[in-house]
Amino acid sequence: MTPLTESRSRHDGHPSQRKLVVHCLTGSATATVLDDIARLRARVLKAWPDLHDGDVSAERARLEPCALSWRSIAVVGMDGDQTVGAALGFPLEDDHGAMRQAFELAGRDATTAFLLAGSVLLPAYRGRQLAHRFFSERENHARSLGGFESTVFASVERDDNDPRRPPFGRGNEAFWKRRGYMRNEALILPPPAGPANAGFPAARQAAWTRPLERGY
């Protein structure tokens, strides 16, 4: 067996070699995939920086506004019958959480914003442009609906000196900026939901926005 043959056989079946399929569901159809997405979120968001506690029922409850909005979208990445990535979005006015309250406190019209409600992807499938696809599909959906001036999402921020920070961990800020997003200091969000993590530095939430008219 030649070294080349050995190299090929060693990587056979690795996630990076498998073909992925991306599905987009809208409106009430999003409800059919929310249980799978909740399980995926409970798995992925246990890692830095979110540090959720892996409670599937809590993750499912956070996704409920998406199922209730007729203008929502769920973008789902599949490896065969396994959900390996997902991203959600719906109009901010259909949400009743912290982001809408932040808009209202800042004197901004929540009806003009489309909320990107979380994007998760298993580590083995990263680096294949799926993150860009997740953003583009949701932004294009919002654009197709009409009436939206911006897209917005929340990110969790933790101190650089937090002892739980991975030694070589990198944030997503550079990626978000390449997509045209900027941290919006006018939108004040409360600390993120999840376990209190007593004894560690407190986490923060920040809002990132971009004008929707700038095509991608």
- The CATH class turns out to be Alpha Beta
Named CATH architecture: 3-Layer(aba) Sandwich
Report the structural category. Answer: alpha+beta
Strand coverage percent: 15-25%
The string of secondary-structure elements, in order, is: HEHHEEHEHEHEE
Could you please describe the fold and organization of this structure?
With 216 residues, the protein is an alpha+beta fold. The protein has a single domain, classed as 3-Layer(aba) Sandwich (Aminopeptidase), CATH 3.40.630.30. The protein has 6 helices and 7 strands, in the order H-E-H-H-E-E-H-E-H-E-H-E-E. Strand 4, helix 5 and strand 5 form a beta-alpha-beta unit. Helix 2 crosses helix 3. The N and C termini lie far apart (46 Å).
Question: Which terms summarize this structure?
Answer:
216 residues, 29% helix, alpha+beta, GNAT family N-acetyltransferase, Aminopeptidase, Acyl_CoA_acyltransferase, GNAT_dom, seven-stranded mixed beta sheet, 6 helices, 7 strands, disordered N terminus
Break the fold down into its secondary structure elements and pairings.
Layout: H1 3-11, E1 21-26, H2 34-44, H3 56-68, E2 73-79, E3 82-91, H4 98-105, E4 113-121, H5 130-145, E5 150-157, H6 173-178, E6 182-183, E7 204-211
Parallel strand pairs: 4-5
Antiparallel strand pairs: 1-2, 2-3, 3-4, 5-7, 6-7
Short structural description:
The protein has 216 residues and is α+β, with helices and mostly antiparallel strands. 29% of the residues lie in helices and 23% in strands.
